[in-house]
Design a protein that fits this description.
Layout lengths: L20 H21 L10 E4 L5 E4 L5 H22 L8
Antiparallel strand pairs: 1-2
Length: 99
């Protein structure tokens, strides 16, 4: 069973012939490295020690965050929220900003 992004699928521990695991893992590695750079920019690199690229049984790339302290997850959520608000203001400046 899997969701639309293949995240619920089990990770690939036993490889199946004909599945391009390298493509998926490489995509996941690029995503994990990009996220690691952004986390480092905010001083959060040590708060996500389990950040890693992975791949599921169908060869879809996955980025695993690992176990994260609640305050680090909260800060990451706030950063995402702030970034989303900035993006919203840039793409829809005619709307009033919420307080």
């Amino acid at each position: 069973m899997t969701d639309g992004h293949g995240v619920i699928a089990p990770r690939a521990e036993n490889l199946t012939a004909g599945v391009n695991y390298v493509r998926g893992w490489a995509e996941a590695r690029r995503g994990a490295e990009s996220l690691a750079e952004q986390l480092a920019a905010f001083g959060l690199e040590t708060d996500f020690p389990g950040l890693a690229a992975d791949v599921n049984v169908w060869g879809d790339g996955l980025v695993r965050l690992g176990a994260v302290r609640p305050d680090a997850a909260l800060l990451l959520a706030r950063l995402i929220e702030a970034g989303t608000a900035v993006q919203e203001r840039e793409t829809r400046p005619h709307l009033s900003v919420r307080n």
